[in-house]
């Protein structure tokens, strides 16, 4: 065999040939760092403060409703865009909590988690050349959502400690190509809750450029210090320009059920429903039935949820401050972004590795929330949606950071 032949069958050549057979889109993003941290937590037997899933029980009446639905043989495909009982309950709750009246027959699509709702919404509205404005730091899915739907992301910074945005920077990010802005309030990872003034400012830009607001509101009930959650769809002029994404995962502590939804005007719900149909056909039928029960829980359920998380927030702020972290106190959701400058590490990745391998606590490196990794190099995120024994184990492990 000649040298030339050897090079054509070498590992690089094989890798290039394989790559040609794969999707260039999928190559543009990595697997989820958050879910990778969960795997590392298991490998090193570390306390998982990385992924935002509650490790305590869901409400008994919601679980009982799911059991009854399965026993009652609600085990076949639901209507593609969602069981009528659940869509009706979603419409009633949106009107009750936000004063927005929607038609469950034409404006609600039930999906496999809000993750699918966001993807179906993006695929339903994006054309080649469209731009989407994304605040960062941002929930890591929005980057791949933009790439897979074919949108070009335009990032606008939320700046610590208050995570405010610069109004001029946001104004400059909008233009004739802006198809949508993604607004996540209460926000992951920062805990920011967008104020009415901020939402109105965004509203004015959407109206001016005829752009959609795609809002991720899955932490709507996890909110502190008397702050109010305001849905973009409730603002004057935004009823027809908003796609509201929400789900059961966080409000009812059932992240594994994979039930979410998108609320959008009828003409937008048509493509969302088509995309959803061919992506997944539908969400789990018996769990949708249980969802209809969950969404009718009394106000006391939501008060208790927020109260419990308030206690956990205080506990976690104490643990982290004692361990030497500078904390950005969240106004909503169940994460704390921290500044790690007080520790002598070159960046968030090496610090996160050290934490999981040597200290026994898994966190999310800040860079995974930014387009430019350098922006998050001094930050890591902790979640606190955990029972007291998990928080206590985390406190004990982190005490090792201060040294003997
Ligand atoms: C902001 C945000 N949106 C969406 C999701 C995923 O939600 P779901 O379980 O409904 O797909 C998460 C999960 O952590 C999140 O933090």
Structure overview:
This protein is of the alpha/beta class and 404 residues long. It is 43% helix and 14% strand. The protein contains 15 helices and 13 strands. The protein has helices spanning 3-8, 11-21, 24-27, 33-43, 60-71, 84-98, 113-125, 142-149, 167-173, 196-209, 266-280, 285-294, 299-323, 348-359, 388-398; strands at 47-48, 108-111, 131-136, 152-157, 178-184, 212-216, 242-247, 260-263, 326-328, 335-339, 361-362, 364-365, 379-383. It has a seven-stranded mixed β-sheet with strand order 2-8-7-6-5-3-4, sandwiched between helices. Strands 9-10-13-12 form a four-stranded antiparallel β-sheet. Strand 3 (131-136), helix 8 and strand 4 (152-157) form a beta-alpha-beta unit. It is globular and about 60 Å long. The termini are far apart. Residues 1-6 have low confidence and may be disordered. Bound molecules: pyridoxal-5'-phosphate. Residues 52, 113-115, 139, 184, 188, 216, 218, 247, 249, 255, 260 line the site of pyridoxal-5'-phosphate.
Task: Quote the distance from N terminus to C terminus.
Answer: 62 Å
Seen as an oligomer or otherwise, the chain set is single chain
Low-confidence stretches: 1-6
**Secondary-structure class:** alpha/beta
Amount of beta strand: 5-15%
Extended strand count:
13
Number of helices: 15
Give the distinct bound molecules.
Answer: pyridoxal-5'-phosphate
């Amino acid at each position: 065999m000649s040298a030339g032949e050897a090079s054509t069958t070498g590992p690089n050549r094989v890798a290039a040939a394989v790559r040609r057979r794969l999707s260039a889109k999928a190559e543009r993003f990595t697997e989820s760092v958050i879910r990778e941290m969960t795997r590392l937590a298991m490998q090193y037997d570390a306390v998982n403060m990385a992924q935002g899933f509650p490790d305590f029980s869901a409400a008994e009446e919601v679980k009982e409703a799911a059991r009854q639905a399965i026993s009652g043989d609600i085990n076949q495909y639901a209507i593609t865009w969602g069981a009528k009982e659940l869509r009706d309950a979603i419409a009633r709750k949106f009107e009750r909590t936000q004063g927005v009246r929607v038609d469950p027959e034409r404006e609600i699509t039930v999906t496999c988690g809000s993750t699918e709702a966001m993807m179906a919404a993006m695929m339903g509205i994006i054309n080649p050349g469209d731009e989407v404005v994304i605040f960062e730091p941002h929930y890591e899915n929005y980057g791949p959502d933009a790439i897979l739907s074919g949108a070009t992301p335009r990032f606008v910074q939320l700046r610590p400690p208050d995570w405010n945005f610069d109004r001029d920077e946001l104004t400059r990010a909008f233009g004739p190509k802006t198809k949508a802005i993604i607004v996540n309030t209460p926000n992951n990872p920062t805990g920011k809750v967008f104020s009415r003034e901020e939402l109105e400012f965004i509203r004015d830009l959407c109206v001016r450029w005829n752009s959609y607001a795609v809002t991720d509101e899955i932490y709507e009930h996890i909110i502190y210090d008397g702050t109010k959650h305001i849905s973009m769809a409730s603002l004057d002029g935004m009823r027809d320009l908003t796609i509201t994404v929400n789900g059961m995962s966080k409000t009812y502590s059932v992240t594994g059920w994979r039930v979410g939804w998108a609320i959008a005007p009828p003409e937008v719900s048509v493509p969302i429903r088509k995309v959803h149909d061919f992506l997944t056909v539908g969400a789990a039928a018996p769990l949708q039935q249980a969802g209809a029960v969950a969404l009718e829980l009394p106000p006391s359920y939501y008060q208790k949820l927020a109260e419990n998380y308030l206690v956990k927030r205080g506990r976690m702020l104490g643990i982290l401050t004692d361990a030497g972290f500078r904390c950005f106190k969240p106004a909503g959701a169940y994460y704390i972004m921290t500044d790690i400058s007080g520790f002598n590490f070159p960046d968030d990745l090496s610090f996160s590795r050290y934490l999981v391998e040597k200290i026994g606590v898994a966190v999310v490196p800040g860079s995974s929330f930014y387009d430019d990794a350098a922006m998050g190099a001094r930050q890591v995120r902790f979640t606190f949606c955990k029972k007291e024994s998990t928080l206590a184990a985390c406190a004990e492990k982190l005490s090792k950071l201060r040294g003997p």
